[in-house]
Amino acid sequence: MVNDGSSSGAGSANGSKEIGDEYNGNKSKLNRRRFIQAAGVGAAATGFAGCLGGGPGESSEGIPSEVTLGVLAPAPENNPIGAAIANSAELAAQQINNSDELLGAADNVTASIKNTEESPSTGRQRYRELTLDEGAHMTTGVFTSEVLLQLMDPIAQQKTVHMTTGAASPKASNQVNENYEKYKYHFRTGPVNGYHLGQNMVDFLEAKSSDLGWESVALLVENYEWTNPVQKAIDDHIGDLDVDVVMEERYASGTSNFGPVYDSVEESGADAAFVAMAHTGTPAIVQWAEDQRPFEFGGIHVLSQLPAYYGMTNGACRYTITQNTATPQSDLTDKTMPYVESYNEAYDAYPVYTGYITFDAIMQWATVATERGTVNADEVVTGLEESSYTGTAGSLDYYGPDHEYAHDIKYNFSADSRPDEGVNPVFQQWQETDGSGSQEVLHPSYVSTTDYTAPPWV
Amino acid sequence: MVNLSVISTIIVQAAMISALYALIAIGFTLIFGVGGVLNLAHGATITMGAFSAYYAGQFGLGVPGAVLASVTIPALFAGVLYLGMVKRLEDEPIMVMITTLVVSVVIEQAIVVFEGTTSRALPPLIQGQFSIAGSTFQNLLGAMFVVSWLLIGLLFLFVNYTKTGKGILAVSMSHKGASLVGIKSSRINLITWIIAGAFAGIAGLFLGSWLTADFAMGQAQLVLSFSIVVVGGIGSIRGSVIGAYLIGFLEIATTNLVSSSLQGLAPLVVLVVVLLVKPEGLFGREFTE
C-alpha cells in the first residue's frame, strides 16, 4: 500500500518539532495564540532562510533517531510511474531499517509520500509540507520537469538535499552550474538528462542501425517541454550517422489521431519511425499496430517502459523498441535482480524505471550519510559529489559543479562493456513469450537477452 | 502536387470520420431539440461508453460484452441523470448546464482516480484492413461508417413512424401542445436522454477502439458536438449529420493537405465563422416553437 504521508513526520530536523506537530493538528490542545506565534515565527524563518542560513542543512548534526525521507510522486495510487517511486521509497526505507550498517544510529527511517498531481503549484505545496511540517532530511522523486523547475528555489531555500528520480530537464542542472552555492542541494539520480536522452537515441542508432536494418528514419517528437533538449541533441548528432533522416515532425501536444502523421511517414519511405513520445504514446502505438503501418517503431516511448504496458495495450506494443533505465530482464549490476525480486515480492508487480532510480537515490543518500556520520545537507552534498555508488541502474556518479550538467548522473554509452562510471541506458524490445509480453533487452550486449525481431507485416 | 490517390484517400477517410462525428453529435442535438437544454455531460457520456467497453474487456466479456456495456451503461446513466437531476431543473436551462458540467467533471475525476491519466486500449472490435483506390483503411473505420448510417436510419424511422417517435417530434415542437394532446413530456424527455446516452456510448466505443480511451477524451468531443450542431442548426438532426460531414471533410482535408498539426482546429474555425455569418446554422432550428 502507498503511504499518503499523513502518518509520518519527524519534524525535528530544524528544531521545529513542536511547531510542526501543532501545525499538523497532531496535538489536540492547540492554543490559538501560540499557533499564531508559531506560524509567524515559521513564516519569518522561511522567508529569511535564504539570507540567515537557517534550515536543516546547517542545524542538523549527526544521524537523528527518526529519519524522514520526503517523497514526491505523481498520483502514486493509480499512476504506475508514481507508484514505483512511492513503493521503492518504502522498500528502501524498510531495507535501511533492517540494515545494521546503513544509518545504524537511527531508530526508525520512514518514507513520507506526497502526491504532486503533476502540477507545479501542488508540487511546491507538497514540498513545503515535507520540509517544513515534517522536517524531511532529504527529498526525492518528482517525475514532471515543470514541477521540478518550480521546486528549484524552494530546494535552495530549505537547503535540503533533493535527488530527482524522474524529471529530465537539464535546466535544473544548468541552474546548479550557474549558481552553485544556491542550488547545490539538487542532484538528478536519473534518468540521464533530456539532452543525454537524445544523445543516447543517436548513439543507439549508430551502434545498432545495421543490425536493425534501418537505413532511413522518420523522426517523430511530441511537442512538450521534456522533448526540447531531446530534439536538440538529436539534431546536434544525427547528421553524423549513415542513417538518413527522411522526415522530421514535431507533432502537436495532445495529438490522438496519428493517421495523417503516419501517412506522411509512409510517403517518406522511412524504414522506421524514430520517436520521442510520452503523453501521446498509447494512441500512437495502438494505431501503428492496428493499422499495420509498413515501418518499424523505436526510440524513447516512456509508456512502453512500464512492465504492465503489454496488457494495457492488448499487445499493441509488441515489436516496438524503447530506451529504458532497466527492465526486469536486465541484469545490470549485482543489485538489479535482488531489487526487482524484492519489489515483486512486496507489491506483486515489477517496478517502472522511476522505481529503480528512487531506490538507488535513497540507498546512495543513506550510504553517504552513514559514511559522513551526519544528515547535514552540506556534508551530504560533498559526499554525493565524491561518491561512486553501484546501484540497480549502474554506477551512480555525478557531474561536478563546473560541468554544464552539474549534479546530473553521468551518461556513459558503451555497446559492449560495462562502463566504470555513470549509467548506460538499455534498449528493450517488447516480445511475446507464452502469450504474455516481456521487455527483452537488445542493447547493451553485456545484458542483452535477445535479437531484434521486425514486425511481420513490414 | 495533389494526385488522384490523395483525393480518394481524403474522401474515404473523411466519409468514415464524419460518420463517427455524426454519431457523436446526434445525441447532443437530440436533447437540445426535444428538451431545450444543453447537456454538458455529453462528452463524459462518450468517455463512459469507451471505458465501459474497456472494463468489459478487462473482465473477459469479449467484444459482445464490450459492445453491450458501451451501449447500456451510458444509456442507463443518461436516464438516471435525467430523472435524478435534469427533470427537476428543466425550466432552468442555465442550472442544467451547470449541473451537467459538474457531473462531467466528476466522471472525469473518477476515471483519473481509478485509472489514472494514461490512455487505455480497448479490445479490438474488428481487425484487418481493406483497400479502396490503392489506399488502405482499417475495417474498424468501415464498420463505423456502416453502423453510423444504420443507426441514423433507425433513428429516422423511429422518430417518424412510431408512436413514441411522433411524441418526440411533438414535444420538440411544443411542450404545451404535446401536453394538450395527452403526451407526457417528461416520459418523452426520458426516452430522448436514454437514446442520446446510447448514441454517445456507441460513439465512445468506436472512438476508444480507434484512438484509445482516456479520462479527457470527451472534452474535445463536446466541443466538436457544439460545432456540429451550431453549423447544422441547433436542434436539427438532419443539420447535425450534414454539419458532421462538413467538419469531417474539412478536418481531413486540412490535416492531409496542409499540416497534421492542425487537427482539431477545423471545428473551431467553422464554429466561429458560422456564428458570425449565419448564427442560426445551415438548417435553422426545425423543432422550435
**What is the global morphology of chain B?**
globular
SSE pattern of chain A: HHHEHEHEHEHHEHEHEHEHEHEHHHEEEE
CATH topology name of the largest domain in chain A, in short, is: Rossmann fold
Strand order of the largest sheet of chain A: 7-6-8-9-10-13-14
Number of strands of chain B: 2
Q: Termini distance of chain B?
A: 51 Å
Number of helices of chain B: 11
Instruction: Specify the structural class of chain A.
Output: alpha/beta
Rg of chain B, nearest Å: 19 Å
Radius of gyration of chain A, in Å, reads 22 Å
What count of helical segments of chain A does DSSP give?
16
H/E series of chain B: HHHHEEHHHHHHH
Organism (chain B): Halorientalis persicus
GO molecular function (chain B): transmembrane transporter activity
Protein name (chain B): Amino acid/amide ABC transporter membrane protein 1, HAAT family
Membrane topology (chain B): Multi-pass membrane protein
How does this structure look, described?
The complex is a heterodimer of chains A (458) and B (289). Chain A is α/β, with parallel strands linked by helices and 458 residues long. Chain A contains 16 helices and 14 strands. In chain A, 41% of the residues lie in helices and 17% in strands. In chain A, the strands form 3 sheets. Chain A has a 7-stranded mixed sheet with strand order 7-6-8-9-10-13-14, sandwiched between helices. In chain A, α4 packs parallel to α15 and α5 (120-133) packs parallel to α6. Chain A is globular. The two termini of chain A are 43 Å apart. Chain B has one domain (4-117, 137-277): ABC transporter involved in vitamin B12 uptake, BtuC, CATH 1.10.3470. Helices cover 73% and strands 3% of the residues of chain B. Chain B has helices spanning 4-35, 42-58, 62-84, 93-115, 139-161, 163-173, 175-180, 185-211, 217-232, 237-257, 265-277, and strands at residues 129-132, 135-138. Chain B is globular and about 60 Å long. Chain B starts with a helix and ends in a 12-residue tail after the last helix. The relative contact order of chain B is 0.20. Chain A binds chain B through residues 75, 77-80, 118, 249, 251-252, 254-257, 259-261, 263-264, 281-283, 286-287, 290-292, 303, 312-314, 316, and chain B through 9, 13, 57, 112-124, 127, 129, 136, 138, 140, 210-212, 214, 217, 220, 255-256, 260-261, 263-264.
